[in-house]
Amino acid sequence: MQPDYGETEILLVEDNPTDLELALRVFRKHELANRIEVARDGAEALDFLFGEGAHAGRGGLQIPKVILLDLKLPKIGGLEVLRRIKGDPRTRTIPIVVLTSSQEEKDLVESYELGVNSYIVKPVDFDQFSDCLKQIGIYWLLSNAPPKLNAP
Amino acid sequence: MPSVIRAPKRISQLQKATRPETKPKGLLKEVIDLKAALAIRANLTDRRRADGAVAQLAAIVESSDDAIIGKDLQGTVTSWNAGAEKMFGYKASEMMGLSITRLIPPERQQEEGEILNKIRHRKSVRHFETVRLRKDGKTLDVSVAVSAIKDRSGKIVGASKVVRDITERKRSEEARRTSEARYRALFDYAPDGIVIADSESYYLDANASACRMLGYTRSELIGLHATDIVIQSEVAHIETALGVIKARSAYHREWQFRRKDGSVFPADVMATMMPDGNLLAMVRDITESRRTERALAASELRYRRLFETAKDGILILDATTGMVVDVNPFLITTLGFSHEQFLSKAVWELGFFKDIWANAEKFAELKDKEYVRYENLPLETSDGQRIEVEFVSNVYLVNGSKVIQCNIRDVTARRKAQEALRQLNANLEQRVIERTTQLEAANKDLEAFSYSVSHDLRAPLRAISGFSKIVLEDHSAEMDADGLRYLNQVEKSAQQMGQLIDDLLTFSRTGRQAFNVQPVITADIVNAALDDLKAMQENRRVNISVGDLADCEADASLLRQVWLNLLSNALKYTRKCDPAVITIGSRREGETDVFFIQDNGAGFDMKYADKLFGVFQRLHLADDYEGTGVGLALVQRIVQRHGGKVWAEAKLNLGATFHFTLTGGQDAA
Fold this sequence. Notes:
By secondary structure, chain A is α/β, with parallel strands linked by helices. Helix content of chain A is about 40%, strand content about 15%. Chain A has helices spanning about 15-30, 40-50, 80-85, 105-115, 125-145, and strands at about 10-15, 35-40, 65-70, 95-100, 120.
């Protein structure tokens, strides 16, 4: 099956329900939320992308325009998810933005070493937070030219 | 050596001469004839007797060892006896009628004329010593006597010459002179003093050494008595000494002498009586050898003390027999055997050293080894205790015989201590490993804690902040003014807590993050920090003057944090000043650069200065000046990590000056 961007433009990987709700509100408010897929942990995110687990019946890959990835996730952590996506030739061109509360330099360095496209620390202040998400959405969905998809 | 002057042979022996028939010839015959004629004239009846006397005289002449030669007044030989033949090597037949001058060496030829002249003038020539030539050309030392021969009328017709060979005597005299010179030299130059005294002990002579020793000149010494040159207590011994010497015994005794200047010295005296009855004494100054003996005795005493009191065992063995020569008290105590038990045995019989010298053969094999050393030699003491010793043996010569010295040190305690130390070190290492592991675990925990703070505390804050905002956005119409104010307060508090968390995380990270010191241009850092703080300078009058800033060595990002915090403080606490005046610079104090930031702001009361750098410590109300109380704590932590220190001077409402250094913190603290 020919891979395409399908229904999903943004894969939002976020386990915290309040952060998730706030994020979705921002996207909704700015009309960026139509084609958002939400994964609540790392495993779910990978299953969605690779069409495995709960998504096994779907068949084929799902390639979103951007993945917003939290680092502190149940089951499979954010850095591991990052490693798998960037380590797989089929998915490694997908832009990934780490969106995290962690200011740890260790996380920052490791993320970039694994090939992250952007690293953003979630502001505590909601106004800043919503500004930030809005910019991400506009930039990656509208401004940025996505990579050409390769046949698997 | 034949004596020079031969004992005259007795007549009776001459009568038995081997050549009784030999007839006198020449001059001798004339003499005999003359004497015979005189005898006849005197007493004819005695003729027979006279004939006998002539024959006797002739025999005496012939048998004489002296050369007896007759010559006429021209020097022509007229008679030549057997002695002359023997002495000169010419036969009578070779010399008769020839000139006597052939016997005279060329340089003495004039002697003959002088002799004959004297004879002519009726002068006799007494013995004179001269040199004559033999037939074989050799020279002879001779003594010559010449007397006139007269004819019957009394006219001098010739001379008789008696020549005696004195070569031997001359040689003997020469030998005696040489010998005397030798003994004189010996006397003069002997290093020992030599004195000659008469039988009453008055000095007759003294050599140079004796004079030097006693401090007298030779002439001063001659005539002095023995009592003058010995100390008072020795005087009584002089009589005894003289008695011994005169009894021809060898005399040898040490005397205490007194020099002319009164000083005293010991000397060995050997004395003897000489054939002439005088006394000869040899005096040897033994001051130096006495001193050496004393030094040796002192040294011996010292080493003996060392041996006796040593805290190591010392054993001395005869290398040839293996017998114990000496053992010191320490070894006796250590091994628990008596001195007698040691001394009566060969070393292998003692049994202690069976690992080295099991038996005589083994001992013989090893005894010549110059040096033997064992670090840990097990020994068994008399009470069966096992000890470990360090054993060292050396071989050396004492009066030509080999001796083995063994030094034995009980190292049992040392070995135990070493073992204990080793054990302790092993334990310590183990404990260090354990503590390191614990620390590593604690560090991991801390990291995990920070991580979780960073993540999990922010999310709810964001929720509080976020939903407050949403309520304000979506539902403000449904709330009264108080409700809105309360919600605003909730939102503000959440933000403040977010700031607190951020500051706290920064503070905790400062201690852990990598530390990279390099040369830093301070002015660049300060300018960058001021740039970052532009927002704080907007809409107010701020005079910032940047003076000289020394460059430094620091971690650039941490140093930037220091300047940022101090400058933002200065801007913050001058908020109410118009204009705000901030002075930045550095000054040199000894070896250290001191950086400072001075402001004219709110300042503080110096009695709270000690709280200034504590975490969460604030000296101002949050209503007046916002803040978390972490900034200065962070400054202090960074400065201290560089090895420097930070301090402040201030007056309430009159501004504050913050100083910091990056070195010399320990000294200054």
